[in-house]
């Protein structure tokens, strides 16, 4: 438990930074909806004239931002990107922080097994992922309440928040797995971000192409597309697939970490 407290304390400043950034992004964006709503059909027509690659880049494919549910879905696109990057950072730090900080001797000479220490470090990352998604949910609900809209989308906001946690966990466990495999742990965040960039590009291709459902398997950013969430559902197949990925990545993390040569990076 002391290890968990230590890890939570170590990640506290970054967590506060990310929370403030997401709060400003979400709250400020939602408040601006009144101007978008006033534009109505004109705004929808302007977005429709954007080239499809541009719509895909900004998460506008298949959503009507003149309606509050579609507008919030567009905001979630940016929130998902932020949470994915934050999750990659958490996963890389959970496995490789001691190598970078050269403190392996301090942590891994304690009377605890490697697996236990790793479990506590991973648990701290999960806590922060759930917490930041919860804060995003509360920020969204609070911002929407100030608009006093007739349409209630609180259930959709909750589903989007759940999808953020799931996608974040996929990137978190993937990043941790990458660091457990590579020799130079300080490169873990870089490799994790490269994987994210690849997933982002594949997501754009999915939005741009017709009949490209198979591409969703390769990009967690499209496991839960807005049109499905707005209808009040999360794709059960992709929920199961995400869980399988998380379990698989986590298993590899423990297997690889037990064999890893715990030497500080030069």
Can you give a write-up of this model?
With 266 residues, this protein is an all-alpha fold. The chain is 75% helix and 0% strand. It is built from 12 helices and no strands. The protein has helices at 2-10, 12-31, 33-39, 41-48, 52-57, 68-101, 104-107, 114-147, 154-181, 188-208, 226-230, 236-259. Helix 1 packs across helix 8, helix 6 runs parallel beside helix 9 and helix 6 (68-101) packs antiparallel against helix 10 (188-208). The longest helix is centred in the first third of the chain and has 34 residues, at 68-101. The radius of gyration is 20 Å and the shape is globular. It starts with a helix and ends in a 7-residue tail after the last helix. The mean pLDDT is 87.
Briefly, what is this?
By secondary structure, the chain is mainly alpha-helical.
End-to-end CA span:
30 Å
Poorly predicted spans: none
Structural class comes to: mainly alpha
Secondary structure: number of strands: 0
C-alpha-based Rg, rounded = 20 Å
Instruction: Enumerate how many helices there are, as a single number.
Output: 12
Shape: globular
Provide the succession of SSEs: HHHHHHHHHHHH
Sheet of most strands: none
Overall pLDDT, averaged? Answer: 87
The proportion of residues forming helix, as a percent range, comes to over 70%
Strand content: under 5%
Which descriptors would you attach to this protein?
single chain; mainly alpha; 266 residues
Annotate the secondary structure layout.
Blueprint: H1 2-10, H2 12-31, H3 33-39, H4 41-48, H5 52-57, H6 68-101, H7 104-107, H8 114-147, H9 154-181, H10 188-208, H11 226-230, H12 236-259
